[in-house]
Amino acid sequence: MNEVRIAQMVDRFYTRVRQDPTLGPIFEITIGDEWDSHLANMRAFWASVMLGKAGYKGNPMAAHLRLPRLTASHFERWLQLWRETAAELCDAEGALFVQRAEAIAGRLLAAVNSGHQPPALVKFG
User: Fold this and answer.
1) Is residue 4 within a helix (H) or strand (E), and if so which, with residue range?
2) Could you report the per-residue pLDDT of 18-55, keeping only the tens digit for each?
């Protein structure tokens, strides 16, 4: 696993997300014209998750709590696209990518379902 593989994974995954009829509209409203910065941020996030690399400066929990009406089906669709992308791009490391994504999605969904409110000044990313 390295940063090049992470960048490939993130970029291909978000290409799929943007084209997806379920997730695409949510991301379009939320990200708008900020895709370059979002992708850079997601590459940094996944480098922190997969490699322990410093540099990610976001709060995924707050970002997801700000999104309207996320449901388990949204998270499952996100995971389905993530799994497909990992299967295409990764060998043995794909399983770890998927395991980490499943754990993160589970925590985010639990927080969304609990009705927690995000901090007031956290920006999506």
Assistant:
1) helix 3-19
2) 999 999 999 998 899 999 999 999 999 999 999 999 98
State the first-to-last Cα distance of the chain, in angstroms, to the nearest integer: 23
Q: Is the pLDDT of residue 122 over 70?
A: no
Rounded to whole angstroms, how far apart are CA atoms 31 and 2? 26
71 contacts: CB under 8 Å, gap ≥ 6: none
Residue 63 reports pLDDT greater than 80: no
Angstrom distances, CA of residue 55 to CA of 43, 48, 83, 99: 10, 7, 25, 22
Class (C level, CATH) for 3-114: mainly alpha
Rounded to two decimals, what is the model's pTM? 0.83
User: How would you classify residue 116: left for phi > 0, otherwise alpha for psi between -120 and 50, otherwise beta?
Assistant: beta
CA distance 25 to 22: 7
Q: Where are the domains of the chain?
A: 3-114
